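#data-curation
PF: Archiving a pair of folding outputs for the training set. Convention for this channel: one message per protein, sequence first, structure tokens after, nothing in between. First:
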Amino acid sequence: MTYTPPKLLKFEEFIALYGENTRYELIDGELRDMEPTGPHEEVSGNIAGRIYVEIIRDRLNWLIPKNCLIKPLNAEATVLRPDVIVLDKTQLNQEPLWQKEPIICNGNTIQLVVEVVSTNWQDDYARKVEEYALLNIPEYWIVDFRGLGGIQFIGKPKQPTLTICQLVEGTYHQQRYRLGDSINSPLLPHLNLTLDDIMPT
């Protein structure tokens, strides 16, 4: 029996075939199924709502699009689809694709990304940490509400964990939060949030 590797896709092919299908993103040419479930979407919505309250309260010129892709400028075969993305409105006029499609190419347009962990947790804890740091995104949240990540990422015993990655000199410094902990976001200093507040019902 011979092994046939999956066909690798490029940016244009991915957009044509899967651009509007929120189940998929592309990493190094490989199609990734994000496996969204009802609880996953509930957690994403809870987070977006909490962040939006902070944007309004602090009168920040930011927005949270419903759907948005990130295509790093120099990547021909990677298209990321964060669960929540916060954009700086003042930078949108520098985005080459934004007027036609909800695609961000410049990291300085992005204030914050949130990934809600699914069974493909390795991407969220490893590959995306690298990608988002290279884009100079100031803050990256990894919300592992089911405690799926490896022990090296969420500790032992495995349990629901929210990790805030803050960019410091090009590298993310990570802080873990468990149920009951008050979450500290350097980007949203007035945020009053615990992991309990965003867990699914």
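PF: Second:
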Amino acid sequence: MSKFSFLLLFFLLLSKVAWTQNNDSNADPDSSGVVNSSLLPTTMPLLLFDENKEKEEKKEKKKKERKNIWFGIKTRRGYAKREIRGQEIYEYFNYTEDSRRLDPYIRDVYWFDTQERSIRTSGYEEGKGYLLHGPYERTINETVVESGMFYYGTKHKTWMLFDSNNVLQDKNHYTEGWPKESRISYYESSSRSVEEIIPIQYGLEEGNYFYFYDDKQVAVTGEYQYGEKVGLWTEYWDTGNTKAIRKREIQYQEEPYTKNFRPYIRAEWDKDGNLVYRKEM
């Protein structure tokens, strides 16, 4: 074999090894703790419940509602229909054609899927549908069972649930997707720098949980359902809010009240994002 042929073969083998290593790295989601996250670096919600804003909205309500203008935004009316076990379910709503960057802290964002002609709470992408904005009403066999208001796809103001006889069963209050029962603690009350957000609904933890470092970077994220921790909870290193590096992931039950399930550490990374531990399944 000539010297040229040998060198060519050597470089081809070297390239193949490098490509394989790179391909394996990309295929392994745990190969690096560095992640792209809409939460990190973050601009945390500094003031969740603005009472002055609510007062102004009440003043404008009577002036605008006849023109389908809600919270200063022009909307269109729509409806969705489905049938379950012989019951006709209608959803009447307003939606906006305005685009808006979604709040990454809110778990459920409601939007009208124009292809499926149904309301969904996940998977929203601009161009696929429209964010609900304005009054909403759900009826079963012409009886109102739920009513409320949306603000750019998030539950807003007072929401009410009724039984089949239209008797009020429950009432909840929201501000742009945040249940007003949520427990929020601050590092400094004067600056409204959030330390922890515990989502509360119907008296139980329900929704996305967040804990922040004092430099406003997200430290812990997770989800509650019916008062139980579910799914993957993630802890992050404090990088001074420059980038997101996972520190530890803890796996909880996928469904609340799962019997005989014990949470476990799924993976850990060092401050540089190098994988130091992963539970073998």
